[in-house]
């Protein structure tokens, strides 16, 4: 197996609180996506809602994935004032959250 050098994926799984409206969720997602324009080490952002038929989501409903060129880039992102301000708002809207950072690994067959 071949671990990617440098590249890091930052994955956040979330369940919004019941009282958070769809309009509020939409605005939070736009704010999250906008971080790409504000924080240089953040290279891309994707998100989606759970569509699994396996019902193993453990209550998580949304997935957010950001790509960074390095672990140092993730650290810079986490401490960046724009991220800190956004995270303070975003996290208060969540009932559950799980964050994992990983280096993509290719399996050579």
Mean of pLDDT: 95
| Overall radius of gyration | 15 Å
Distance between the termini: 9 Å
Can you tell me the overall shape? Answer: globular
Overall strand count: 6
The CATH class: Alpha Beta
Class from secondary-structure proportions: alpha+beta
String of helices and strands: EEHEEHHEE
CATH fold node name:
Alpha-Beta Plaits
Oligomeric state of the chains? single chain
Instruction: Please tell me the CATH architecture by its name.
Output: 2-Layer Sandwich
- Proportion of strand residues: 25-35%
Continuous helix count = 3
Strand order of the largest sheet: 3-4-2-5
Q: Biggest β-sheet, characterized? A: 4 strands, antiparallel
User: Low-confidence parts lasting 5 or more residues at pLDDT below 50?
Assistant: none
Helix content: 25-40%
Number of domains: 1
InterPro entries: Dabb (IPR013097), Dimeric_a/b-barrel (IPR011008), HS1/DABB1-like (IPR044662)
Protein name: Stress-response A/B barrel domain-containing protein
Organism: Coptis chinensis
Subunit structure: Homodimer.
Give a description of the structure.
Homodimer. The protein has 109 residues and is of the alpha+beta class. It has three helices and six strands; from the N terminus they run ββαββααββ. The strands form two sheets. It has a four-stranded antiparallel sheet with strand order 3-4-2-5. Strands 1-6 form a two-stranded antiparallel sheet. Helix 1 runs antiparallel to helix 3 (81-92). The radius of gyration is 15 Å and the shape is globular. The mean pLDDT is 95.
């Amino acid at each position: 197996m071949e671990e990617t050098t440098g590249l890091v994926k930052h994955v956040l799984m979330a369940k919004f609180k019941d009282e958070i409206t769809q309009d509020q969720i939409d605005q939070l997602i736009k704010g999250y996506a906008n971080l790409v324009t504000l924080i240089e080490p953040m290279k891309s952002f994707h998100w989606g809602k759970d569509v699994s038929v396996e019902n193993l989501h453990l209550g998580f409903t949304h997935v957010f994935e950001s790509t960074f060129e390095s672990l140092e880039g993730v650290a810079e992102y986490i401490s960046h004032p724009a991220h800190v301000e956004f995270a303070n708002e975003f996290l208060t809207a969540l009932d559950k959250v799980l964050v994992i950072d990983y280096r993509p690994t290719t399996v050579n067959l």
